[in-house]
Amino acid sequence: MFLTAALFLVTWLDRGQSFTRPTIPLHRQSSLSGLSYSIAGGGVHRAGPAVFDINSPDDLKDFVGADDKPAVIKVYADWCKTCKQFDLRYRKLASIWGEKRQRGSPGLEDEACEFSNLVRFAQMEYGANEEMCELLDATRVPYILIYKREGGKMAGFTCPPSKVHLLVDALHEHALPSPAIIDDQEEEAVEVENKCIESEMDMDRILAAGMNFIQDYMPQISKR
Is the pLDDT of residue 70 over 50? Predict the structure, then answer.
């Protein structure tokens, strides 16, 4: 049953098929990140860096299909010292790029950044999810998987602490608007501005023509 569900999930993720997240109560707690999730009755409460814990194919599908943001998953192993070193960097990126920490939580400070809330972060322990990790080609740790709900798998690569820049580059690539989109937006804004300027010039010409008409015919009207 688990293998069938995992195979279906991998096929769905690779194809990038659209998915609507079911409205079911979820309760998760991440031991490494310090995050606690409580989703029930429409209420969501989070504390600490927002790193979701994935323990089943359903967890993975819920996480990737939650919204259109890039979904980043760290595959780690409890016995892996390199994974523990990388986890510090991963949680730091989660605090910068991910969902904000719960305001007013004791011992936690909110971090404001231009990249905030652009990406969602999760983690999956290899030993507890070996079959699923193998199906996802995440057989080396620490390993990074990046998905989007509509686009499927965006990237997958090993990421030891010394290579954390690979993850940062991937976040910039998949979470920020591309230069082409920015250029198109700027070009559209310039076009709209030019049309406004042309409209103002047309209005000025109409007003000037009206004033000339009044000046030319006012003397004749006065004589009558």
Answer: yes
